[in-house]
Amino acid sequence: MSQKKLDEPGLKNVSEFPIGTAVNINRLINDDALMSLQILNFNSITATSDMKMQSILPAENQFNWKKSDTILYYAKKHNQRVFGHNLIWHSSTPKWVEEKGNKDSLWLGEFMKDYIHKYVGRYKGKVAGWDVVNEAFESKGGAYRKTFWYNNLGKEYIANAFRYAHEADPDAVLFYNDFNIERDTLKLQAVLNMVKDFKKEGVPIHGIGFQMHIRMDTPDEVIAYSLKKAAETGLQIHLSEVDIIFNSHNDERLGGIENYSSITDEMKLAQEEKYKNLVLMYRRIVPKEQQFGITVWDFTDRDSWIKGFFNMKDWPTIYDEDLKPKPAYNGFLEGLKEKTKKK
Ligand code: XIL
């Protein structure tokens, strides 16, 4: 089969909303080829892990701003928006915080406040938005995840995290971010109920982040329905961690289920279509003024977190192992370029 010629004008240049990618900052700035693709395509940047608590505060009182400062410097130099990921996430809570917090929940409440004030305050006016709380609901269904934070502070920790972030930077756009909410309508409903409660109580929440780690068989109709329901809140909608896999997993580390060990041309074209449809759904369903942007989670199959995390082969992104644009790239681009009816 002859491959269509891929044109590559830079995604950000054909988009009405910011196009972002998550990166490992040291890896990025030490790889010229990667960096030129990053600059060509993206005008928003997120850290894959460099801005998580584990990285910012690995030991008590030892703030480590080196990587986050570098990201800010890089973003400024290349005219990119910085998106903060994330403030509170059970999977990136340092051991020392868990040990102390489990003994003393009053301390933990104060710690959380202080951490958010310091961190968001440091980057006030510079980080455009934050994932304030990440993955506070179970992988499936509508229950709160029984995390270290939940167990010690109750569900109120979520609202409080938003309050503290807002105090530190009243202009930052504050998101609740989670996965599977594009396909699990029970989980989505639980998030929407929380948003409703927050609005009633005056908790400052401004956006919903759909991580959007989807699979080729995640039905587009379900994704469309979920985007529509979320957009009805009037909040900003961010597709915050997009990738599209062929294999599957059980949502747990090393839980990959590998049905495909290689990728065919046919699979590449199907993925092109899936990327295109996702971008088109976002543009058609989410009103313009609520389009915070689309962010991909790593942008090359070489660097994607999927293989290491789930321990399986896959081809989730828009560039291949050799940093060549895949048909998926073209799909993304076409999705951005295609004329849609004005909202
Ligand atoms: C991932 C990073 O990409 C990996 O490098 C790290 O080992 C684990 O975390 N949902 C999230 C992201 O919100 O923070 C995760 O990032 C991917 C799933």
Keywords:
alpha/beta; 343 residues; TIM Barrel; 2 domains; 13 helices; binds (3S,4R)-3-hydroxy-2-oxopiperidin-4-yl beta-D-xylopyranoside; two-stranded antiparallel sheet
Q: How would you concisely characterize the structure shown here?
A:
It contains 13 helices and 11 strands. With 343 residues, it is α/β, with parallel strands linked by helices. Strands 1-2-3-4-5-6-8-11 form an 8-stranded parallel barrel, surrounded by 5 helices. A two-stranded antiparallel ribbon has the order 9-10.
Q: What this model shows, in words?
A:
- This protein has 343 residues and is an alpha/beta fold.
- The protein folds into two domains: 1-43 and 212-338, TIM Barrel, CATH 3.20.20; 44-163 and 195-205, Glycosidases (TIM Barrel), CATH 3.20.20.
- The protein contains 13 helices and eleven strands.
- It has helices at 25-29, 32-41, 53-56, 66-77, 95-103, 105-122, 148-153, 156-168, 185-201, 220-231, 265-285, 305-310, 327-337, and strands at 19-23, 44-47, 81-89, 127-134, 173-178, 207-210, 213-215, 236-245, 248-249, 256-257, 291-297.
- The protein has an eight-stranded parallel β-barrel, surrounded by five helices. It has a two-stranded antiparallel ribbon with strand order 9-10.
- The protein is globular, with a radius of gyration of 19 Å.
- The model has no long low-confidence stretch (mean pLDDT 96).
- The structure holds (3S,4R)-3-hydroxy-2-oxopiperidin-4-yl beta-D-xylopyranoside.
- The site of (3S,4R)-3-hydroxy-2-oxopiperidin-4-yl beta-D-xylopyranoside has 7 residues, from α12.
